[in-house]
């Protein structure tokens, strides 16, 4: 991982500017018809040109064989060892929509789901209801209270919401109530350690009230909870890397993880296109040293099992890429946080295609296009995702020599 003590020692507050472009769930697996992955099947003249001029490789988000969640995978891209800095999804989601997480508060991400008359989940995402419908369900839950405990519930996007518990003696080490599959009932909240027993009991009491209020409001007539967590107090970008950093993202979770590491989160609209996001990067470019830009729908389409739709998202990114190239960054990194093959319909452990383009500070390798198999033979090799930030800083000439 990025050695933060070493980074503090070597980084300087000047040098080239850096763009980290993350296509969520970028990595794929070959489809049966022609043996191509989504990235290989996509028409990507701009990315292919950068691959020829740059250096390619495959990044490993957490460890070989381990399929990561989006939170730890992004922390790895930012240089934080996700096995050391364990940040729950709840804090990421809640922080991303502007909810305050104080000392002792517990945050959790909620999903509205559909259950049948027997309480069995038939759709984990409630048919991906609109954000407006999600807000209506949140309104049903906002005034639920228990003695000594405040529950703050806010809509996120579509079927997702954030929940923050405030009160004395709370603990966030609680197992998810989302069973991650249909055909079974939601799980009860269970404490992973004795200190969390009371909090788990309070959560279950809240769920019982919420269940009654959601009854009859199909398709979002029940909920599940994921990622119980508390503020992790992460080291900040300005301190570790001496960067004034910004985040351009649409989904709250990615805004949340960026805010936790000290990036300034730029205002965006929920329906912003890739081109809209890249235009936003261009608008703020003069104000920042480092910009993280996140594209969500590569992951969503992979989870939906829609190979062609994921290809379309990649092609949209490629078509809009000249907007970022016109900014003349010293370093442009294009990668994903993890792989989400459409053939698998979920996050997987497969290493992620990664492209580093930094004119004048690297030797182009033999990659002729940006795809999984081309990246296998690239100069970067297979490497921990936590190495990306030191690589970016080095190529941006922001690190001084180590030692005499």
Question: In a nutshell, what does this entry contain?
Answer:
The protein is an alpha/beta fold and 404 residues long. The chain has 15 helices and 15 strands.
Provide structural commentary.
This protein has 15 helices and 15 strands. With 404 residues, it is α/β, with parallel strands linked by helices. The chain folds into 2 domains: 4-86 and 234-395, Alkaline Phosphatase, subunit A, CATH 3.40.720.10; 92-229, Alpha-Beta Plaits. A hairpin with a 5-residue loop joins strand 3 and strand 4 (121-123). The two termini are 24 Å apart.
Mean pLDDT comes to: 95
> Nearest-angstrom radius of gyration?
21 Å
Largest sheet: 8 strands, mixed
Please report the total strand number as a whole number: 15
The portion of residues forming beta strands comes to 15-25%
Task: Note the run of SSEs as H and E.
Answer: HEHHEHHEEHEEEEHEHEHEHEHHHEEHEH
- Globally, the shape reads globular
CATH topology of the largest domain: Alkaline Phosphatase, subunit A
Give the full name of the CATH homologous superfamily of the largest domain.
Alkaline Phosphatase, subunit A
* Contiguous helical run count: 15
Q: End-to-end distance, in Å?
A: 24 Å
Provide the spatial order of strands within the biggest beta sheet: 11-10-12-1-13-14-2-15
Domain module count: 2
Low-confidence stretches: none
Give the CATH level 1 class of the largest domain: Alpha Beta
Looking at the overall shape, the CATH architecture of the largest domain is 3-Layer(aba) Sandwich
Helical proportion, percent range? 25-40%
Structural class category: alpha/beta
């Amino acid at each position: 991982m990025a050695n933060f003590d070493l980074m503090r020692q070597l980084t300087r507050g000047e040098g080239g500017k850096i763009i980290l472009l993350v296509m969520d769930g970028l990595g794929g697996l070959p489809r049966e018809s022609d043996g191509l992955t989504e990235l290989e099947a996509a028409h990507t003249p701009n990315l292919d040109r950068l691959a020829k001029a740059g250096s390619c490789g495959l990044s490993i988000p957490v460890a070989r064989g381990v399929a990561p969640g989006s939170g730890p995978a992004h922390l790895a891209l930012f240089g934080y060892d996700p096995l050391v800095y364990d940040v729950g999804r709840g804090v990421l989601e809640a922080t991303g929509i502007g909810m305050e997480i104080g000392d002792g508060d517990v945050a959790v991400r909620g999903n509205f789901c559909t259950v049948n008359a027997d309480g069995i989940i038939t759709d984990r995402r409630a048919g991906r209801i609109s954000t407006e419908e999600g807000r209506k369900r949140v309104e049903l839950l906002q005034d639920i209270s228990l003695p000594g405990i405040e529950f703050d519930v806010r809509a996120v996007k579509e079927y997702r919401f954030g929940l923050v518990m405030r009160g004395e003696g709370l603990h966030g080490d609680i197992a998810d109530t989302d069973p991650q599959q249909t055909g079974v009932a939601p799980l009860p909240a269970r404490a992973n350690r004795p200190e969390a027993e009371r909090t788990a009991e309070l959560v279950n009491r809240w769920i019982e009230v919420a269940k009654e209020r959601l009854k009859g409001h199909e398709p979002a007539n029940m909920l599940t909870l994921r990622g119980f967590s508390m503020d992790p107090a992460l080291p900040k970008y300005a301190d570790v890397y001496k960067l004034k950093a910004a985040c351009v993202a649409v989904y709250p979770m990615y805004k949340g993880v960026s805010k936790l590491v000290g990036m300034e989160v730029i205002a965006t609209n929920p329906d912003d296109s890739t081109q809209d996001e890249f235009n936003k990067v261009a608008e703020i470019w003069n104000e920042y040293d480092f910009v993280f830009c996140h594209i969500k729908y590569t992951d969503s389409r992979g989870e939906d099992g829609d190979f062609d739709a994921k290809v379309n998202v990649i092609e949209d990114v490629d078509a809009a890429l000249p907007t970022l190239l016109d900014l003349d960054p010293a370093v442009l990194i294009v990668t994903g946080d993890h792989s989400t093959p459409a053939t698998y319909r979920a996050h997987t452990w497969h290493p992620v295609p990664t492209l580093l383009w930094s004119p004048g500070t690297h030797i182009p390798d033999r990659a002729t296009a940006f795809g999984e198999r081309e990246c296998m033979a690239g100069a970067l090799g297979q490497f921990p995702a936590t190495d990306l930030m030191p690589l970016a800083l080095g190529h941006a000439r922001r690190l001084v020599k180590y030692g005499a």
